[in-house]
Amino acid sequence: MSSKNQTLGEFIIENQSAFRYTSGELSRLLNSLRLAAKVVNHEVNKAGLVDILGAAGDVNIQGENQQKLDVYANEVFIKTLTKRNIVCGIASEEEDDFISINSQDENHQNKYIVLIDPLDGSSNIDVNVSVGTIFSIYRRVTPVGTPVTIEDFLQKGSEQVAAGYIVYGTSTMLVYTTGHGVNGFTLNPAIGSFYLSHPNMTFPETGNIYSVNEGNYLDFPLGIKKYIKYCQEEEGDRPYTSRYIGSLVSDFHRNMIKGGIYMYPKGSRNPDGKLRLLYECNPMAFLAEQAGGKSSDGYIRTLDVVPTSLHQRVPFICGSKKMVEKAEEFMREFGE
Ligand code: AHG
Ligand code: MN
Ligand code: MN
User: Fold this and answer.
1) Within this chain, do residues 189 and 230 fall inside the same structural domain, yes or no?
2) Residue 203 domain-assigned (yes or no)
3) From the CB of 246, is ligand 1 less than 6 Å away?
């Protein structure tokens, strides 16, 4: 039975039998992510104290400046998963290509691959605003014991086995799903353990928050422009409140708790949208659906989009079910 003083470690073991496959491998994988999260949390927390702020000077594959903590978080997650010999492949927003993990052990039977946005909302680090980590887990589709291929990574979001995020906020939380609802765990920094603080998280069916970067308004599809005006109209429970942190993880987390909608539509600067299907949209869409919410690109369910490349971007509309349905209605009526 889950209870509020249960630790994440205990919860993972206790719920292991609910997985479709019960070798314990997924439990070990989740435990590795839990460990890496604590290490990154420690570093994020002291970001203001040490000389770790500012761009590292590198430019990642998406042409964005990498912050030092992006690089650090990327290394921690990759090293933890690689050294513990826990997965057969990793893809990261910060790496150009996927990483195939060749175990020394000939009997190596690892089945899982991980896709990760090691540090989400990195532009917020310098100003002491919440950032996060997003992860997405699949079973490989190619045979065990052989090197992973791109096919293992380009699976539809609906094939995810587990997904989650860590929000490094006023408190640090790890929120995840294995397809049996969504549970949230808060880190007690004094003890270094995550405790089940938010069992069975659900999106309110509707809400009064909309989250979108309105600086891009003029570039948005007509359907989104009309929907934003609808959010601002005085009628019934409207106008809604506008809240936009600029860290997907934090914006999603708030909307899930309070009820709301997050949108990153296409625009001339981002012709396909900005967010990455594999590292950001799919894991969030899986969590949203598991929490009774909804996610789409305006027309197609996010989890049904067939990925064609590792760093693919898609328009993203995600949140309380009724709100997403309303935005889709506007997209259908007014389109681009
Ligand atoms: P990342 O830091 O991993 O590159 O992701 C940033 C993403 C997302 O977290 C956020 O919601 C969005 O970019 C903000 O984009 P804008 O600054 O264009 O609004
Ligand atoms: Mn991100
Ligand atoms: Mn990132």
Assistant:
1) no
2) no
3) yes
**Which amino acid appears at position 11 of this protein?**
F
What is the pLDDT at residue 53? 52
- Write out the two tokens for 57: 């000077």
The residues of the chain scoring below 50 in pLDDT are none
120 lines ligand 1 (CB under 6 A): yes
Q: What is the pLDDT of residue 247?
A: 98
d(C-alpha 307, C-alpha 303), whole Å:
10
Instruction: Give the DSSP H/E element, type plus range, for residue 11.
Output: helix 8-14
Query: Distance, CA 89 to ligand 1 centroid (Å)?
Result: 25
Q: Write the CATH number for 163.
A: 3.30.540.10
**Do residues 305 and 156 make contact, with C-beta atoms less than 8 angstroms apart?**
yes
Residues 161 and 244 in one domain: no
Q: How many CA atoms lie within 13 A of 73 on its CB side?
A: 33
3-state secondary structure 41-82: HHHHHCCCCCCCCCEEEEECCCCCEEEHHHHHHHHHHHHHHH
What is the pLDDT, as a whole number, of residue 1?
52
Atom of ligand 1 nearest to the CA of 93: 3
Q: Is 25 in the pocket of ligand 1 (CB under 6 A)?
A: no
What is the structure's pLDDT at 83? 86
Q: CB of 117 closer than 6 A to ligand 1? A: yes
My answer on whether 13 and 159 are in the same domain is yes
State the residue range of the domain holding 119: 8-198
Residue 48 lies in a domain: yes
User: How far, in Å, from the CA of 120 to the mean position of ligand 1?
Assistant: 7
**Is the CB of 70 inside a 6 Å radius of any atom of ligand 1?**
no
Query: How many structural domains compose the chain?
Result: 2
Q: Is 143 part of any domain? A: yes
User: Domain boundary at 198, 233, 256, which?
Assistant: 198
Question: CA angle, 90 as apex, 168 and 132 as ends, to 5°?
Answer: 10
Q: Are strands 241-242 and 209-211 parallel, antiparallel or unpaired?
A: parallel
**What number of other Cβ atoms are within 10 A of residue 226's Cβ?**
17
